[in-house]
Design goal:
The chain is an alpha/beta fold. It has helices spanning 19-30, 59-64, 81-97, 109-117, 127-140, 142-152, 154-158, 165-178, 182-185, 211-227, 230-239, 255-262, 271-291, 306-317; strands at 9-12, 36-40, 67-68, 101-106, 119-120, 189-190, 203-207, 297-300. Helix 6 (142-152) crosses helix 8 (165-178). Mean pLDDT is 90; it is low at 1-6.
Amino acid sequence: MAAEPVPAIALAGPTASGKTAAAFAIAEALAPRLPVEIISVDSALVYRGMDIGTAKPTPQELAAVPHHLIDIRDPSRAYSAAEFVQDATRLIEEIRARGALPLLVGGTMLYFKALMDGIDDMPAADPAVRTRLEQQAAAQGWPAMHAELARVDPVTAARLAPGDSQRIQRALEVWHVSGRPLSSFHKSKTIVAGVRPVSASALFSLEPQDRAWLHERIAQRFHAMLAAGFLDEVLRLRARGDLHADLPSMRCVGYRQAWESLDGLHPMASLPERGIAATRQLAKRQITWLRGMPGRHVIACDAPGATAQLVRAVCDRVPGGGA
């Protein structure tokens, strides 16, 4: 039998919904009674040297409230959902042992879902199979690979676009390594170390009532990142010589579009439009994930007083957190 959930608060939401500012407001409100430590739930913030394009908290913000799972991985190395669950579970226990509240904040919904519902016990990546699939895709194209996936795993193929190379490749890799379709693994999940560290009732979600409000914030933030030197950041990463466009780090929204422009695949002038469009698509996927978590507490992030409403709700949820 799984252990009782370790008490913690989770704050999720699509990109540009105001999670960082809301997390600091929660920490400030609770500080007189309960110290807060933030655990990042973001698959991009784990990478060192990727600061501007990930909207990473500033050094001042990182110093104001303890943060975890930021700058823990070189961009040349992948970081999996299973690793996140192991790291987050350990951190939750350590933070609570210090008498503080773990506040999990981010927009990588796969990480949240894995932490709350368990992870699929799928086979590990096989570099040889992956290389063979990449060679096949180079010769035939990803739509043909999608057609092959539809033959061996129609359930997974039905939810993937023909151009979703990363997920198509992984699904075919699982099939070749295990002889089982990827969809079959989703039916049986395991909890890392037998623990569910966060319960669904502790999940607060910032979601816009008006999608146009979020789209405007996404556009403003992307333009601000470009003005802050985002392209120079990508150029520094490229100059290392050991990174390439197929790495998970370089597939992050914004970085992928910038890398393609620098490779000459698209005009540089189209980067803002392409980056904003990709970020909007990410936000749409994040909201879809959240709507599949029925136990969450939804806060309309575009409503007046949204932050104050969130802070009150969290304080009411946390023992000793009320006024």
